Amino acid sequence: MAIDWACLLNKAMGEFADAAMPPMVSLPVLPLAVTQFIEKSNHPNVEINDLARIIEADFGLTLELLKHVNSAQGGNRGRASSAMQAMSMLGLRPSQDLLMAIGARAAVQSKQSRLVNQCSFWTAALQKAIFAREMAGMLKADPQMAFSGALLQDYLLPVVTNELYDDYIEFIKMRDLRPIDICEFERRMFGWDHALAGACLAHRWQLPDELVCCMLFHHAGIEILGDSILGRTPVAAVALSALLPDQLRQCYQGLEQLLLLEQKWPAFNLRAIAEKVDAIQEESGLGMRNDFPLSRRCKLVFNKSPIGAHT
Questions:
Q1: Where are the domains of the chain?
Q2: Chain-wide mean pLDDT for the chain?
Q3: Against a cut of 0.90, is the pTM above it?
């Protein structure tokens, strides 16, 4: 049965709007070329060469697109030398997802954060994206949607942690004293969390409803696998990727949840998948240094956990 993503999204978001966020938070804006691309690509009879011309007007977007397609991660044997060739090799739908992800990343990186190291943040985001794509394959879900959703799941964090710096410092202090997940802290402190705020802004950007749902539900935890609607979708794959350790340690016991899943799902091997993610990231050629591989991130937290000490 097909999922009505728009209905699901409207029900989950309720009446929340990004206007509910504090006025001092300056929300990022998509690059003009991406906005034009999204608008044009929604036309039913759009030609790929018309979309390529929009992208080619932005050197940065063109470069990122070519780097992706010409990398091992793109899965293509030939090499593209233009946006038109790159989009033809990828296909329209994957090109749409990729360019929206690139655009959102560019929008966020235009704003520096005092709390989040951008390089480390986007390296971890790419690790989560590759991990989500692997999980989508195991769930028989759309791998490209999972990749894009995971890459964008936390895109608003560098912005809000910078502009609400003092509040997020309290999160780090509180987290060090007792276990608390970042969304729980945000809801207590602000009345919203970054998943809801990010999804609201992405919806305003007119990103696909399924992609927005990936962002909205990314902190649902392993329980999402039991959901009759979302349990075998890219949304579930993204939610699993959100459990991985990262710079802010958003999900305090995320790794423990993945280890628990490993016990219940014989096909899921966290160590093997983490090593595969590292190998893919190493070969990707996307210009992101992998100074802290996922397998090392997992090992460091794993060694600290009571479960890891007895496994």
A1: 27-110, 113-311
A2: 84
A3: no
